[in-house]
Amino acid sequence: MNRINSLKEIEDLIENNIEESLILEYKRELGNKNEEIAKDISAFANTSGGVLIYGVGEDGGVPTSIRWIDGKNTKETIENIILSRVQPIIKDVIINPISNPVNSSQAIFVVNIPESPDAPHMANHSYYRRHNFQSIHMEDYEVKDAIFRKGLKKSLYFEISKNIELCDKSLNLIEEIFRYKLEQRQYIVFIPFYIDAWNAITSSGLLFVLKEEAQKLVELYSLIHEINYLIDCQKYGLEIVNTPIYKSFPEHGTYIPSILQVKIGKLYGLLNDLEKPNILPK
């Protein structure tokens, strides 16, 4: 859900009867139940992120009216609750006060919570997640699963960055090879691209965790497997691979570094696309 920044956007939510959901919740007041605030914020971070709005009344999950809150120290109170009652700390939470235009001492407080790459977050010695428009306890298996997925994701992102470095080195090596005539070229062994983190994700059955990125990664690692096969051929002394046209005449095949240059160039582009912001968030 996009960030909410203005009173007009709040009024639109009420006018259009935008119901509470997995990523949106209304609270009539802040109250003094710090445990409840920590629970709700951690639940959003542990699920898909979302927006928590303090200062809007609701009936059955449907917003009914603005209920202005005393603005004095309220933002600081929410920040202190997040810092003191949620572990590990949730990064990039944005608390946006929207002032009452006729009484500057009152405000609505919009808490924009990202889906956290550091989930699961514990609040009040328990773990919570969003379900429909509620914050509920996470089951033991869900907590373990979230921890496992977090480790695998971090490993995958690290592996992608290492493969980008390897692309640079491999392409530079090929350029160096091509400076010499064919008869002057020395035997070269390329370093295979890294696939350990990807193998762990696929064997664990958690590929679905990557959601819309999964297809991009399948394409990426299919290409890596092709490249590693060619590197294996080169490693075991095969300098030339046959083309479909000349498969009966090895001397008319294609020089492996030539094929690697094309395929690694394509891989380099795919890897850099995945490194762009909002594609594979770290």
Properties at a glance:
13 strands; alpha+beta; five-stranded mixed beta sheet; 20% strand
Structure description:
The protein has 7 helices and 13 strands. It is of the alpha+beta class and 282 residues long. The strands form 4 sheets. Strands 1, 2, 5, 7 and 8 form a 5-stranded mixed β-sheet that branches. The protein has a 4-stranded antiparallel β-sheet with strand order 6-9-10-11. 44% of the residues lie in helices and 20% in strands. The longest helix is centred in the middle third of the chain and has 38 residues.
Q: How many helical stretches?
A: 7
The amount of beta strand, in percent, is: 15-25%
Helix content: 40-55%
- Sheet having the most strands: 5 strands, mixed
CA gyration radius, whole angstroms = 27 Å
Mean pLDDT rating: 86
* Overall outline: elongated
Cα-to-Cα separation, first versus last residue:
19 Å
Q: Helix/strand/pairing class, anyone?
A: alpha+beta
Q: How do the helices and strands follow one another from N- to C-terminus?
A: HEHEEEEHEEEEEEHHHEEH
Q: What is the secondary structure topology, with strand pairs?
A:
Elements: H1 7-15, E1 24-27, H2 34-46, E2 50-54, E3 56-59, E4 62-66, E5 69-70, H3 74-85, E6 86-87, E7 94-100, E8 103-113, E9 122-123, E10 126-131, E11 134-137, H4 140-177, H5 196-204, H6 213-235, E12 240-241, E13 254-255, H7 256-274
Parallel strand pairs: 1-2
Antiparallel strand pairs: 2-8, 3-4, 5-8, 6-9, 7-8, 9-10, 10-11, 12-13
Helix pairs in contact: 2-3, 4-5, 4-7, 6-7
